[in-house]
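Bug report

Summary: structure tokens for Derlin differ between web form and batch submission.
Environment: batch mode, default settings.
Steps: 1) Submit the sequence below via batch. 2) Compare with the web form result.

Sequence submitted:
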Amino acid sequence: MAYQTLQQEYLQIPVVTRAYTTACVLTTAAVQLEIITPFQLYFNPDLILRNYQVWRLITNFLFFGPVGFNFLFNMIFLYRYCRMLEEGSFRGRTADFVFMFLFGGLLMTIFGTFVSLVFLGQAFTIMLVYVWSRRNPNVRMNFFGLLNFQAPFLPWVLMGFSLLLGNSIIVDLLGIAVGHVYFFLEDVFPNQPGGGRWLKTPSLIKMLFDTPEEDANYNPLPEERPGGFAWGEGQRLGG
């Protein structure tokens, strides 16, 4: 009975969020069990171009380090904000969400080459958080019960938290930069005088991922609690 309930809950997770978070967890488990090593996963342009190890273009987004606080922290934020984007502004637009993944991943891969980053999963998470926060500017957040602020400040608060933990903020800055590029091209520039929509999901991706109308009885994860935990709890203003 418990297994069936767990399976049902798992299958209710939107498809892109489910696929990505599952891949991240399985990759980390494989490293923990010493089935593979991080050296087989990290981003290395030379090995990709000269040895044709093209899987590194994907696997560097799937490994968040050994199981510990950083891993759990990143997984929680990845799951929450990826799911809320997919069930919120991308609901019924799976192809557009996949295209955002591809666009963000491509930009990070290009920029990562110049700043010598070997794993880009955390930057990708920050990108998702940034896009969600800009699309939900009126949500008030609470971080660890210490800070109260509006959603657009969340990526910067996370960057400050990384700094306090002694981590490099280059990863956070990369995620914020790529998130801002996507948000500007998708949400800001098309609404400017003389602007236009530069980001258009290819028809092939639409054909593969867009699905018929969703079940009207489907209950998405409520955005009124965007953090879901003490370090990212929030509520809409005026709600």
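Above is the batch result. After comparison, the two runs are identical; trailing whitespace caused the diff. DSSP finds ten helices and three strands in the chain. Strands lie at 139-143, 147-150, 233-236.
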